[in-house]
Specification:
alpha+beta, HIT family, subunit A, five-stranded antiparallel β-sheet, 3 helices, about 30% helix, HIT-like, Histidine triad (HIT) family protein, catalytic activity, HIT-like_sf
Length: about 120
């Protein structure tokens, strides 16, 4: 397993920092966002450290698929199954923790385009 001891999400995945975990597998953890932007706002992260979604896709596409399956499971169990799944890649578009994480957003109507 690859982890960064200075990474917030690695530390949450390891259980070193508390979070409201809503789903967990051996390789993925999902927890509630501390500043929710929708009634359902959960972050889904791999336990292994990958900087962003392109890095994860290149290194371990099956793990990216598991992240996506976990997002769907969370949306089904905590919402009505409808959700937006957002990955920010780069500081300029809002990535503030450089450990890949997908935002599961739902529970209200969402417009397009976002932002």
């Amino acid at each position: 397993m690859s982890q960064d001891p200075d990474c917030l999400f690695c530390r949450i995945a390891a259980g070193d920092i508390p979070a409201t975990v809503v789903a967990r597998t051996e390789r993925v953890v999902a927890f509630r966002d501390v500043a929710p932007q929708a009634p359902l706002h959960v972050l889904v992260v791999p336990v292994d450290h990958h900087r962003d979604v392109p890095a994860l896709a290149a290194a371990d596409p099956e793990l990216l698929a598991e992240v996506t399956r976990t997002a769907q499971q969370v949306a089904q169990e905590l919402g009505d199954g409808q959700f937006r799944f957002v990955f920010n890649t780069g500081a300029g578009v809002g990535q503030s923790v450089f450990h890949v994480h997908g935002h599961v957003l739902g529970g209200r109507p969402m417009g397009w385009p976002p932002g």
